Amino acid sequence: MSAWRRLHVKVRRAHGLFTSRRVTEQYTWMYGPSTLGQNLSTGKPLRNDFFKELEAQLAAMRKKAADALPGSSWSPFDINPNLPPERADIVIIGGGVMGWSIAYWLKQKERVREGVKVIVVERDLTYSQASTVLSAGGIRQQFSLPENIHLSLASADFMRNINEHLGVLNEDPVDLQFNQSGYLFLASEEVAHIMEENYSTQRQVGAKVTLLSPTQLKEKFPWINTDGVALASYGLENEGWFDPWSLLNAFRRKAMSMGVIQCCGEVTDFKYTVQMPKGLEYQMVECAIVVNAAGAFSGKLAEMLGISSNPKDTIAGTPVPVEPRKRYIYVVHCPDGPGLDTPFLIDYSGMYFRREGLGGNYITGASPKEADEPDTSNLEVDHQFFEDSVWPRLAYRVPAFEKLKVTSAWAGFYDYNTFDQNGIIGDHPVINNMYFATGFSGHGLQQSPAAGRAVAELILDGNFKTLDMRGLGFRRIMAQEPILERNIL
Amino acid sequence: MLKILIPTLLLIPTSWLAKAKWLWPTTLLHSFIITLFSLAWLKNTTETNWSTLNPYMATDPLSSPLLTLTCCLLPLMILASQNHLAQDPLVRQRIYITLLVTLQLSLIMAFAATELTMFYVMFETSLIPTLILITRWGNQMERLNAGTYFLFYTLASSLPLLITLLAFQNKTGTLSLLIIQLLGPIPISPYVNIIWWTTSLLAFLVKMPLYGVHLWLPKAHVEAPIAGSMILAAVLLKLGGYGMMRLMLILSPLAKELCYPFIILALWGVLMTSSICLGQTDLKSLIAYSSVSHMGLVAAAILIQTPWGLTGALILMIAHGLTSSALFCLANTNYERTHTRTMILTRGSQMILPLMATWWLITCLANLALPPLPNLMGELIIISALLGWSWWTIIFTGAGALITATYSLYMYLMTQRGPVPNHMISMNPSHSREHLLLTLHLLPLLLLVFKPTTIWGSAY
User: Fold this and answer.
1) Is A316 in CB contact (< 8 Å) with chain B?
2) Which residues does the UniProt record annotate as the domain NADH:ubiquinone oxidoreductase chain 4 N-terminal (chain B) (predicted)?
3) Is the ipTM beyond the 0.95 threshold?
4) Which of A36, A63, B71, B266 has the most crowded Cβ, counting Cβ within 10 A?
């Protein structure tokens, strides 16, 4: 983006083929404790990079030469350069973090350069409705299913070493702002035994969690009101939150540098091949494999395959049980709130909150009851929900939050798996060349690096190599055996 | 000759007048009958070597195997294209068959020509239907690029050939093959000699292709539809070889010094292109580079101008024609099912289509020159002839044979063995049409084991 902007600037004020650049002030990109990570200025980048400049300069030179030479710039190819190519090996539908993660891992695992041709199709490049960027960005290992714990653990490891994986030469390093402040689950008397069982599963798999009694809890976090809390589970490492947009962009930048093609368009039809229109133009893309990573809209996409026309109790008629569910997130400002070591707290009543930034802001929300699921036709925020359901629970748990101000709010979709609220990773039983990586119901972002790797292994190696995700496949849906998480949000 | 040409010509009205339901079976049967008749050319009884003589066309032991190969290929092309053209509109199907027939006609006339002018005209004519085939029926955007490369490489190199032929006609008064084989060395000034030699052979070296000018071949082969790939690999490359063999008769005393750099280039090309094969991800691209590798050997053999060299070259040309065409057909059966040519995504086919795996095995073994197939015969004779020319060539040819074996087996193992990907579990079973196609490729190859003298050429 910035290179393009720079080129634009150059064209406007170029005196010759090379222009001079202003040397700017010092800028530290070391991961200091006070770094904000984000550039506050929107002007020129703060460092001089000769090689990035070189690319842009050469491109400008070439353009200048082409304009100066005689001959028209018409070419019989490229009628519309935004259309996807006519054929590709793998088409990934959905340009969220899951789709780009799969694209990255596919390119990472091909053994020779340009081994597989991958396209990622995204219908809205502003990501205005995408679940990825509207997410609260938390990552935890406190699940009850070993598969989920493995996925999150592997993803946390990936994100801790993100620059080894997703660093691109000559570009800025990736900064995920991964705050490893941990998750804090609070359990009441009735569900404390479930928390203990989950704790032992988590420790067995290798997550670093600990159980705290109410007194220990009060000692560690004095701002908590421990009434009603029988047990708490606190993640010590690899848990916390990060910036989803940075992760998405890091995956995208790296994947595109490895040769993945990004197309803006919507898939409207499968005619043994994928058909994608953009406006009124459409392009048939002939491909070998399709990956459904469309998030909240995966169910609708799978409908295009005509699954619903088959009888319900046959294998061919097994629907993809993913639908969008709207969830609200409210940003509140409370100057006397909990301090910098606030974990991502999740109460047994369904309320959650976490610290956002260093200015006394917090992000909070709650899961609505099954009966009052909000309407999913738009992303309008219901502030009454905050007043009725979130604030009372928030103020009960953390008394300091009795005095707060809601500064902002947004809504996002969960790709909610109505069957058992856990991800579906694997190929469809009947449509053999369609793979799914969807239905994560709120914990997709945190599992995206590992889930992407799992799908890439499935496609390129034939079965899972590093983590065994067969439990998360389509089989459980066909056999109607749900694998439910206990204590989900 | 007319008994082959007129039926081939009339195949065009057949393809336009046949009813939709009977289009493909009719044209198939018709072209099979033509093939059957063309087998008669293989019998050579005259002492002058030229038979079926008429003022414009004739066959001799050099051209008759190539002619039979060409006629044999038309039914195979029709058989191979039937499936992927089934969803095209009827008119497009008819045009396709017409193009194939026009190509066939121009190739028959090229190989059977007695005048070099006619040969040249037909050589150029064969470019047009091939170009149309590649650019109109290819699968990807890159086909336009491929068509351009294909057309202009050949055109640019064959224009000097035209001038050379005209100059030759001026000097000696004739361009008839029957006469120029009896002429002695042509008196030309020493500097023009080199230009003369190069321009005569450049067109054919590009067509063969020689290693330095081979860039059009991987592009054209990969982007062409199956029939295009088949005819390109099996016959059009051999046009280059055939042209070289005819023209070197008139270039004879010059050849001893001037052939040196081209032989080195050809042998180096054998090594280089075989190595490139090992690193290819696209199946058709691998087979295309393997064609370049084999043709490098043929080019080197023709350039040394010994009887064994010419014999070996002809045998390898025929055997490679059948083998390469069969490989492209196999790659196409894979492509029609999985819609991808990437080898990493189409593995483990042996578990799913075991009989096709048999054909894969036989064809890959033929490609790596397994005895007693004529591929080995050709390669062995060529290697021996080159050895007689210079001992050092054994390094290139030996290493080349080794790497050829490596990539042929690699191709077999990558496509047939390995874990079966999930998306290939429910593929269509092999059609009997595909089995027939491959049998008709491999059967002549196996029969030639028993009577290789049919394809030994006039040096025998």
Assistant:
1) no
2) 1-110
3) no
4) B266
